[in-house]
Amino acid sequence: MAAARALDRLQTRLADPVVRLALRTPWHDLVSRWVTALTVTGRRSGSPITIPVRYAQEGDTLHVVSRRSRTWWRNLETDGRVAVRLRGIDRAGHATVSRDPAEVAAALRAVAASVGRDTLPLALQDAVAVTVRLQPATPIAEDSGRLWRRWVVAVTLGEVLRFAVPALVGAAVAGDPAWGHGASGRCCRAPPW
User: Among 104, 111, 139, 181, which residue has the least CB neighbours within 10 Å?
Assistant: First the structure.
């Protein structure tokens, strides 16, 4: 039990902020096929709590599993409203929590299958199932701006690399005698013509 709590703290403090940040960047595609960010309202504080979780999607339903030792899912027992960052798009939904072994086993199997595994990610007695019913997606006007930014970043990065890599390689081999240059930088051999 102490090891599970230590692992939870480590995940909450180190891994979760990095994954949350990755889900908000233009490169969210690297992780958003398997991980989504759920935002719940804290029971006591009333402030939003955002948790990255693995999920399986069936239409407008998300199946999520969590360790019972993590406490974020308890916020959904009183108020099931959630905000979901799903593949770069913010959606609203309503979540229900289940400790029923049959529902937990089904959610565990669905999440394992979504990441291409045959083994369950958690033991049945250590898991809780959260089912999120998403509200219908509405077109977002800013989505075209987001696509535009992703295109500009990708093209700019490509152009920078296209010019920087040859320049860096040239600078690295400039004084290398194996490439026909001496310490002075002038060619040591006469051209073959």
Answer: 139
